[in-house]
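Subject: Re: docking follow-up (S-adenosylmethionine)

Dear J.,

Thanks for your patience while I sorted out the input files. As discussed at Tuesday's group meeting, I've set up the holo structure prediction with S-adenosylmethionine included as the bound ligand rather than trying to dock it afterwards. The sequence and the ligand SMILES I used are pasted below, so you can double-check that they match what you have on your end before we go further.
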Amino acid sequence: MDYSHVRQFITDNLPVLPVPGMPKIRLHKAGPHSGLRRLAERDPRFGSPYWAHYWGGGLVLARHLLDKPETVVGRHVVDLGAGSGIVGIAAAKAGAAKVDAADIDPYAIEAIGLNAELNNVTIQTVLADITIGQPPPTDVICVGDLFYDAAIAKGVTEFLDRCLASGITVLIGDPWRAHLPASRLRLLAEYIVPDFGVSTGKPTRSGVFAFESSEQS
Ligand SMILES: C[S@@+](CC[C@H](N)C(=O)[O-])C[C@H]1O[C@@H](n2cnc3c(N)ncnc32)[C@H](O)[C@@H]1O
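The structure tokens for the complex came back this morning:
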């Protein structure tokens, strides 16, 4: 499938808006007139357009990185399940030395490219399910809102365990979704943020967590 039309579609139909609580970051965001259905009609594999919305987990984790740049400054960061790229963009703005954004959705990859340019940051995109492999060579993995489905949560948690074992710092942002591995988390910060997953944008209490080994919890 050729995705070259996707960037033009996003540019033409998804307005650029400052992110709530983080005016330094602007993203292409779907609105009532974006007509995402027209993209879907061209491609039977078009999935849920997560990349076009604000998710509580990504918002809270991005906010935390901007508030506490020492978390990532000078470090190599992987944004796992990057969607719009919001977390990776915040990491780059906070001073990360290198940022990779991984997602399994090719539409997300196009959106991340556009959103990175819009925010004047450099992000390497990775179109792959990196959770099925070995830990990537990185210092920090940031996971914004990836525990919304039981099967995904299981695979991601196992992968994050392998990352911890290889010395990678794992940070999670999440609005306490059902499949969050809560017993493995240490709360670092909480914010009230809008979440598309709850009544399309209702303010929701969301946490930033350190993922810790089972011996520590
Ligand atoms: C709810 S969205 C969150 C997006 C972004 N992190 C945020 O918080 O705004 C979840 C994203 O994870 C991606 N995803 C799901 N399973 C994945 C996997 N195994 N590896 C990488 N990305 C995945 C989806 O395609 C989607 O873009």
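A couple of observations from a first look. The chain has a mean pLDDT of 95. Residues 50-51, 55, 57-58, 80-84, 86-87, 102-105, 108, 129, 131, 144-146, 148, 152 surround S-adenosylmethionine (CB under 6 Å).

Let me know if you'd like me to rerun anything.

Best regards,
T.
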